[in-house]
């Protein structure tokens, strides 16, 4: 018998997994030694993904808002940092009152030069870039003060502070308005008031403590200022780039107020100037007034007393967001008149309780006048001219502040401190009356309308 034929075995072929071709748009992982993907097709690679993960996260509108607020606080911190130390400088280098007040006013004089030339830079190149530049100048001023061997360095430091504030403050105020995430358009002006008062309060208080209880009393206040400037620059670098899409050619800022808001601009500017002029007396000669009333050279006590006024500026500002700007100006002018009367009486009778009363009432009046004036101009100025308009407001306000500081210092040098304070009270009473007359005249025009949001 023949053997049956066995069925022929089928040879199985080993199947290998087919390599899929990458589809366009799919993410392909590469080995570390391979080049980063196809630049022609634009395929994403692991390298670009890794770089994106490690890129610094940008701050949103809220972060940009508070970064701008920190710049305003820093500008006023730099302005008030030497105030507690002026008596120490005067004793160390034998400075007269007019020299002290002229050092103080150099800050304002630098602003007067910078604002007309560069006040509109933030409208052209973005708020963020100009704030960074101004903050860097403030940080450089801290180094000049730290190593100052004689009074000329104080003038140089104040020039840098004024130039930095001149660049940064208009840009920071505009940035607050444009990055305001709340439904209240007045929240930006209130935040500006609280930020500036917080910076000034902490500067006065910490400068007094450092000078009294730490070695090198003329150094530590500026070391703190330098560290804060570096922190603000870091926050600004992390915020979004706000350069305008259309490039414009720079030219010096000409005195320009948009048509239709000129009366409101004058009211707002004089209201802010009134607050600044009272602050000039307080910051330039406040420490000498305390020394005359209390006969103490304890810088911690002097700093605490001076910080009382600026603290009330900030505390009052917390409650002003819902009030109409014109109402705030009216009440601010009235309280300023009361505070000037208390200031003149305190100087006449050399009364420390009256001086403290002036600090409290004057701080509240400052907050009302400053917030009202800034709130009025914020809602009236068109967005494409806002930086230039705010810079012009600060230019006029700081000019009047410098004149007040130098004038009261000259009178205190040629006569005495009491006579100088009395003359300043009379001059600022006239300025207050001028604001009141303009407010009455403005009632005859149609009321200003506020936008629903900033």
Automatic annotation (TrEMBL):
**Where, per UniProt, does this protein localize?**
Cell membrane
Annotated Gene Ontology MF terms? transmembrane transporter activity
Coiled-coil portions = none
Q: Where is the composition biased (Basic residues)?
A: 1-24
Q: Where is this region: Disordered?
A: 1-38
Q: Does the keyword Membrane apply?
A: yes
Q: Which residues cross the membrane?
A: 64-89, 95-118, 130-153, 159-177, 189-207, 219-238, 259-287, 299-321, 328-346, 352-377, 389-411, 417-441
Give the Gene3D superfamilies listed for this entry. Answer: MFS general substrate transporter like domains
Q: Report the residue ranges that make up the Major facilitator superfamily (MFS) profile domain in this protein.
A: 64-444
Stated name of the protein: MFS transporter
Q: What is its main location?
A: membrane
Annotated membrane topology is: Multi-pass membrane protein
Record's GO cellular component terms: plasma membrane
Identify the keywords attached in UniProt to this record, alphabetized: Cell membrane, Membrane, Transmembrane, Transmembrane helix, Transport
Record carries keyword Translocase: no
């Amino acid at each position: 018998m023949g053997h049956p034929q066995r069925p022929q075995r089928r040879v199985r072929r080993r199947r290998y997994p087919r390599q899929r071709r990458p589809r366009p748009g799919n993410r392909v992982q590469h080995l570390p030694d391979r080049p980063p993907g196809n630049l022609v097709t634009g395929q994403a690679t692991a390298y670009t993904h890794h770089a994106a993960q490690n890129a610094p996260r940008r701050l949103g509108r809220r972060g940009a808002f508070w970064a701008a607020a920190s710049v305003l606080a820093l500008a006023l911190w730099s302005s008030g940092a030497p105030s507690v130390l002026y008596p120490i400088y005067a004793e160390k280098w034998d400075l007269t009152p007019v020299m002290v007040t002229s050092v103080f006013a150099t800050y304002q004089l630098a602003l007067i030069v910078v604002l007309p030339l560069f006040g509109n830079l933030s409208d052209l190149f973005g708020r963020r870039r100009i704030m960074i530049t101004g903050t860097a100048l403030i940080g450089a001023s801290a180094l000049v003060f730290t190593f100052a061997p004689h009074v000329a360095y104080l003038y140089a430091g104040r020039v840098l502070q004024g130039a930095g504030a001149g660049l940064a403050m208009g840009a920071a105020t505009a940035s607050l308005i444009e990055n305001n995430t709340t439904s209240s358009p007045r929240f930006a002006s209130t935040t500006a008031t609280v930020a500036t008062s917080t910076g000034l309060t902490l500067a006065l208080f910490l400068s007094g403590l450092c000078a009294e209880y730490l070695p090198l009393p003329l150094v530590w206040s500026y070391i703190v200022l330098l560290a804060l400037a570096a922190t603000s620059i870091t926050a600004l670098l992390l915020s979004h780039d706000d350069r305008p899409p259309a490039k414009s050619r720079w030219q010096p800022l000409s005195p320009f107020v948009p048509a239709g808001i000129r009366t409101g601009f004058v009211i707002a500017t004089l209201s802010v100037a009134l607050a600044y002029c009272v602050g000039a007396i307080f910051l330039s000669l406040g420490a000498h007034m305390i020394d005359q009333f209390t006969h103490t050279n304890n810088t911690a006590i002097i700093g605490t007393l001076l910080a009382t006024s600026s603290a009330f500026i900030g505390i009052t500002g917390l409650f002003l967001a819902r009030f109409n700007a014109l109402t705030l100006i009216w009440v601010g002018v009235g309280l300023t008149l009361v505070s000037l009367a208390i200031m003149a009486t305190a100087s006449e009778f050399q009364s420390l309780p009256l001086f403290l009363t002036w600090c409290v009432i004057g701080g509240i009046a400052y907050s009302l006048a400053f917030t009202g004036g800034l709130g009025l101009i914020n809602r009236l100025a068109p967005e494409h001219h806002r930086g230039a308009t705010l810079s012009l407001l600060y230019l006029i306000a700081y000019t009047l502040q410098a004149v007040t500081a130098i004038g009261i210092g000259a009178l205190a040098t040629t006569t005495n401190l009491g006579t100088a304070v009395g003359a300043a009270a009379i001059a600022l009473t006239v300025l207050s009356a001028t604001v009141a007359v303009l407010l009455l005249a403005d009632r005859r025009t149609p009321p200003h309308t506020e936008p629903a949001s900033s």
